[in-house]
Amino acid sequence: MSGRVALVTGGAGGIGTEICKKLISEGYRVVVTCAPVFECPNLDEWKKQREAEGTPIPVYEANVADFTSCKNAVEQIEKEVGPIDILVNAAGITRDSTLKKMTEQQWNEVIDTNLNSVFNMTKQVFTGMTDRGFGRIVNISSVNGRKGQFGQANYSAAKAGMHGFTMAVAQEGITKGVTVNTISPGYIGTEMVKKIPEDVLKKIIAQIPAGRLGRPDEIARVVAFLVHEDAGFITGANIDINGGQFIH
Q1: Global pTM?
Q2: H helices of the chain, where?
Q3: Contact predicate 213/189, CB 8 Å
């Protein structure tokens, strides 16, 4: 059992929740951050579900798009829980629109929440990790950051940028025992995806060679592998989990 502190941003989301549950089962002390109205409006219900499962998870309010908010949250977590040795950047939003119709606000909200957030959170924990000689950072990107997607110039740009960040910071951290990796999920069967109209969802699944949506726990298992102490030789990598929809 590890006992290390793992912070999962966007931990109340569909994929984030499974990541939290998996890491708890592996013995990590898991905490999450969220901005209640912006990222996780159903936070109270989420907390009740975790308590009912016997695995209550501390939640710290933080707007990942705001550097100072992230700094304050991390300081509070490290004071109350302990040094953060594992960071999973899973917070993300969509504001889909064709470029022709996309507003500056739609662009900035997605870039701030999906990409700038990775800097905002990683900056707070990276020095501590390198000083202690151990750290694991996993950035949750997307298949659409790999191949692009119509109507998602903002989202695709942000998710592609995440892996550029990963590759650069991986080179800074590896000599100090800190690894940085990216996971790029395809279409995963979260509640959000399942709410897509049935006819549209069938068309999406038809494009996936595996013939189905992915499961959140399939992402969580890869996260658990990458953050393990035995995964110290893997850094700067991107792992595609998309059922063969995009292979590079």
Answers
A1: 0.95
A2: 14-25, 43-52, 67-80, 104-110, 117-132, 143-147, 153-173, 191-194, 198-206, 216-227
A3: yes
Strand, helix or coil at 30?
strand
Which pLDDT score, from 0 to 100, does residue 41 have?
72
| Residue 148 CA: distances (Å) to CA of 38, 40, 111, 144, 195 | 25, 26, 15, 5, 22
Consecutive 10-residue averages of pLDDT for the chain (248 residues):
89 94 97 78 88 94 95 98 98 94 97 97 98 98 94 97 98 98 96 84 94 97 98 98 94
In a domain, 99, yes or no: yes
pLDDT digits (tens, 9 = 90+) for 220-230: 999 999 999 99
Question: What is the pLDDT at residue 196?
Answer: 83
Domain count, the chain: 1
Residue given tokens 């889909």 in the structure block = 96
Given a contact cutoff of 8 angstroms between Cβ atoms, the answer to whether 162 and 118 are in contact is yes
Structural domain span for residue 206: 5-241
Of 28, 60, 155, 187, the catalytic one is 155
- Which residue carries 């912070």 as its tokens? 7
In a domain, 248, yes or no: no
- The yes-or-no answer on residue 155 being catalytic is yes
Residue 246 inside a domain? The answer is no
What average pLDDT does the structure give for the chain?
95
And the tokens for 164?
A: 């550029």
Backbone angles phi, psi at 98, to 5 degrees: -65, 155
Q: Which among 13, 201, 148 has a CA at the least distance from the CA of 92?
A: 13
- Rounded Cα distance between 47 and 162, Å, is 29
